[in-house]
Specification:
Blueprint: H1 10-53, H2 57-106, H3 119-138, H4 142-161, H5 167-180, H6 189-192
Helix pairs in contact: 4-5
Length: 196
């Protein structure tokens, strides 16, 4: 009895191709999942031995220690930095409050203490108010009185000039002001003797 070969039909061919692809793909996924899990567990178990085998275990330990030291240092540095920033802020606040009080007592013209937030700002403020107080004290000295007298005399000289008086009286009074304020102006003698 001879069997005749019957070729596979195209729809059956397609069906079996799909079955083969799907079944093999599913089984491969199962096996690859097992492989991944088993290898991961095993690799963890042998990692230390592997590191020794390729002679990186000592350097790896040095690196761990160095990184820990670095992380500890950064953490410590940040803590110290925060503490120092806080101390600076507290001292600036204390100084600002002191300056506000002194400002009320001494009545400085520069009254903007609220914007002070740094050492530089404190120093600038102190320079300004020190200058202001030193200037006030200076104005009470002989030279300061001379400056005040000079300013007052200038007003007086303008008033005399616009007083409508005779030229002789105006020039004579201006000459007295110039002498009193030690301003050298050479007024001709004949101008001082007009109208005699």
């Amino acid at each position: 009895m001879t069997k005749t070969m019957q070729p596979i039909r195209s729809n059956e061919l397609n069906y079996w191709q799909n079955v083969i692809w799907e079944k093999f793909a599913n089984r491969k996924k199962e096996l690859e999942t097992d492989l991944f899990q088993d290898v991961k567990v095993k690799a963890r178990q042998v990692q230390s031995t592997f590191n020794k085998k390729i002679k990186v275990d000592n350097k790896l330990e040095q690196l761990r220690k160095a990184e820990k030291s670095f992380v500890d240092f950064v953490s410590s540095k940040e803590k110290v930095e925060r503490e120092l920033q806080f101390k600076v802020a507290m001292l600036v606040e204390e100084l600002r409050n002191d300056l506000k009080t002194w400002n009320e007592v001494r009545q400085w013209e520069n009254t903007d203490c609220n914007s002070i937030k740094t050492l530089g700002a404190v120093e600038n403020y102190l320079e300004e108010v020190c200058y202001e107080e030193t200037k006030q004290a200076y104005m009470k000295t002989e030279k300061g009185r001379l400056l005040n007298e000079l300013n007052n005399s200038q007003d007086e000289a303008r008033n005399i000039l616009h007083s409508g008086g005779s030229i002789k009286d105006v020039v004579h009074n201006l000459d007295n002001i110039f002498k009193r304020t030690k301003i050298e102006v050479r007024i001709p003698k004949n101008l001082l003797q007009l109208g005699n």
